[in-house]
Amino acid sequence: MGASFRDFVAACRKNGELIEISQSVDLRNVAALVPQSDKALLFTNVEGYSMPVVSGLLQSRKRLSLALGVPYERIEKKLRDAMEHPIKPKLVKQAAVREVILTENKVDLYRLPVPIFSTMDGGPMITGAVVIAEDPEYGMNAGMYRLMLKEKNITGIDIVTPNNLRRYAERALQAMKPLPVSISIGAHPYEMLASTFKAALGTNELGYAGGLRGGAVGLAAGETVPVPCIADAEIVLEGEILPEGWVHSEGPFCEFNRLMGGIHCNPRVRIKAVLHRRDPIYYALHMPWENIWMSAPIYEAAAWRVLREAGVSTTAINVTPGGCCHWHIIAAIKKQPGDGKNAILALLSIADIKHVVVTDDDIDIFDPVDVEWAIATRVQADRDVVVISNARSKPLDPSLPPSDGIPTTAKMGIDATIPENVPAERYKRIVYFNEKQARLKDYLGPASAPAPRKSREREEAPIDGLAGKIVKTLAASHRFFGEMLDLFPKEGYARIARAIGRLHQEGKITQDTEGKYQLKAGA
Fold first, then answer.
1. Where in the chain is the domain with CATH 3.40.1670.10?
2. Which of 60, 301, 426, 430 falls between 20 and 30 A from 50, CA-CA?
3. Which residues are bridge partners to 250 per DSSP?
4. Stretch(es) of the chain classified as CATH 1.10.10
């Protein structure tokens, strides 16, 4: 698969993960339609606009796997390898996004099919853009930020929370200079995923994107700003964050926590140019679902890393959508004494993570019923629940009281592993006899004919010989009832049950501490 945005769209189409809707659709209905589909949606006939709109591209583990070119369980390793072996981006001379260039009075953001998502949105909002800026000291930075349309050539930019772009904008404001930026809409998930990393100041996230690609990200020189853009993007806006400070109201927004955010004060961006392909596709990253799914692999990569550094043998990680793929982690481990608590402490050290559950590796951590069962049957709250107060918090946590400063939170870990002082035999799972062989579909349909007379006569035949065979079997080893059913597959269930019943009656067999049948001493 190629590594442009439209290559990814084509791959979704080829793999049955994209539905094209050719009927006329009002832009106000796009946000409501996307969650109703288990596929991405491409709207080719949007009323009042010449561009098609695609949404829901990253709204499932399957499509994330398709985007990154590896099975979902290997995404973490690919991310880790990319972080350990970044590849710097490079300028290219040929850039598809420069096929059409509009500047000055030709800039009109309302020609873009930018939808609203909720009934309370402050206005149309660009959600799926990679914003690139440069600082004379710290170099290039890439991140994903929402931009609310305000005028034909003015947007807001949501950098109210601490991040590297905010640091760049603050430094430019101190010098009373605008901060040039490029805004690439319709970039490959490699660039989008890399841009959501909380990288250290001075780290170019596009190097991680290069590591994911296995080659340098191609950048095109700016037309009206001294900042490059992603060369194979669908649409690019060039502009400047104005040196006015955080004084302009915008919002509300749909937030990743599936709630409406409040009004924020943010800077404004003056758009100086619009670049796009001749036939651009507008990408509307769906809020909040695509936003949170894109975060999951990043937190999973962090979880694998901290558990590896803590020396905990881990078999599975689940950053759950119920926790908005930001706040909750469930981890399955091969436990050594003390590993449950060590795993909790390691996982709670990850920024933003609020609640952690650690289980043994016999638990399917992607099944909420199985996880709840582990908590119900393996946890004593006074022993297995860890609470840490006054840890750094994600400001969007609605359970926190309003605060003007940096909020703090309580973090909690639940050790749902089998306790060291409890026998593991207590946790033997129910396994239905023949559960892998017996299939309901084989028993649906017309009733079968009654058993032949000879078969019925065999069931009623004397069981002395069968009882003798069972005695010989038990002389060699103890056996569960079900094991004896397997040992004598040609014998009917009723005959085996009857033979065991006779041996009981004759005082020849009994059961051991596990419930297996054995010969009675002296019998």
1. 290-398+406-426
2. 60
3. 264
4. 440-519
Could you tell me the CA-to-CA distances from 319 to 60, 204, 299, 308 in Å, in that order?
Answer: 13, 26, 7, 17
How far, in Å, CA of 173 to CA of 171, rounded? 5
Give the CATH H-level superfamily of domain 290-398+406-426: UbiD C-terminal domain-like (3.40.1670.10)
Question: Which residue's structure tokens are 């009927």?
Answer: 23
CATH 2.30.110.10 residue spans of the chain: 70-278
DSSP classification of residue 137:
T
Strand 90-91 to 218-220 pairing? parallel
Q: How many CA atoms lie within 13 A of 442 on its CB side?
A: 4
> Which residues have a Cβ under 8 Å from the Cβ of 203 and sit 6 or more positions away?
none
Superfamily (CATH H level) for 70-278? Electron Transport, Fmn-binding Protein; Chain A (2.30.110.10)
DSSP secondary structure string for all residues of 215-240: SPPEEE--SSSSS-EETT-SEEEEEE
Give CATH for domain 440-519: 1.10.10
Q: Which residues lie closer than 8 Å to 120 by C-beta, 6 or more apart?
A: 252, 260
- pTM for the structure as a whole: 0.71
